[in-house]
Amino acid sequence: MISNVRPVVRAGALALGILTLFSAQADEDRQGSQWGLGLVTLYDRKPYRSFDNKAKALPFVFYDSRWVSLVGPTLDLKLLSTDSLSFSARLHYAGDGYEPDDSPDLAGMAERKASFWVGGASSWKTDLATLSVELLGDASRKSKGKRASLGIEREFKAGDFDFTPRLALHRFDGKYVNYYYGVSADESTSTRRYYLGKATTNVEAGVRIGYSLAPRHKLSLDLSTIRLGSSIKESPLVERSRQDGVRFGYLYLF
Predict the structure, then answer these.
(1) In whole angstroms, what is the distance from residue 7 CA to residue 226 CA?
(2) Which residues contact 5 (CB under 8 A, 6 or more apart)?
(3) What is the Cα–Cα distance from 44 to 65, expressed in whole angstroms?
(4) How many structural domains does the chain have?
(5) Is residue 29 pLDDT above 80, yes or no?
(6) What is the three-class DSSP state of 192?
(7) Could you tell me whether strands 130-138 and 200-214 are parallel, antiparallel, or unpaired per DSSP bridges?
(8) What is the pLDDT of residues 134-150, one digit of tens each?
(9) Which value, in Å, is the radius of gyration of the alpha carbons in the chain?
(10) Residue 121 sits in a domain of what CATH number?
């Protein structure tokens, strides 16, 4: 039953994005829009024990208009947008979770599935930095959890390069932590104890480097490291205290 719902949710989210784009088309003719296609290669070193981490290459879609923004897995409907302040309704797809065959230490665990997240986001741009806030809930009802983020970043330009270092706090409630890092009584073994996850906060540091290869050709490199909150680090499924990520992308702007 659950496996049948998953493609329906994805199709619904895609339909929502398409309908939103078309609904804004009349306004775009007056205000202008920009879109692009590209490819991103990503590698996330998940903290699960003996996890089979693999690099992935995925298509990347970029679209921006007065009312709509689509950047990869994140779709924003702009409720308010000025040069310094923005508020948006957000739909985001997060590739969290695992399958039991991703690691021998996960054998006997039920699959933890990725989810769509829905909620709101806001950003405030000042002369010193850009502050951002995000509040999301699990729209796919996999974990039934909630997550919140508070971030700060600043862009520096040098010729055709731009550098954007960032710091962020990511707060996850107990339902999220328990779904992705908990161990139920049925899943516990002599070497994997029962574990009930609790709310926790991750701390992220990262930098995004962009390069204009040509007027319509953009390259980007994103490096990040996340210090995991105590409730995640204490899980019997986890062997590292941090999660590192690398993303390299190419984007052609039409």
Answers:
(1) 30
(2) none
(3) 30
(4) 1
(5) no
(6) coil
(7) unpaired
(8) 999 999 999 999 999 99
(9) 19
(10) 2.40.160.40
- Tell me the C-alpha to C-alpha distance, in Å, between residue 66 and each of 8, 28, 30, 73, 80: 29, 7, 10, 19, 9
pLDDT digits (tens, 9 = 90+) for 94-149: 999 999 999 999 999 999 999 999 999 999 999 999 999 999 999 999 999 999 99
- List the one residue out of 59, 23, 20 whose CA is nearest residue 39: 59
The DSSP call for residue 128 is S
Tell me which amino acid residue 201 is. Answer: T
In the DSSP assignment, the letter for residue 229 is P
pLDDT for the residue numbered 31: 56
Q: CB of 139 within 8 A of CB of 91?
A: yes
Phi, psi dihedral angles at 138 (to 5 degrees): -75, 100
Amino acid identity of residue 120, one-letter, is G
CA angle at residue 172 from 167 to 173, to 5 degrees?
Answer: 155
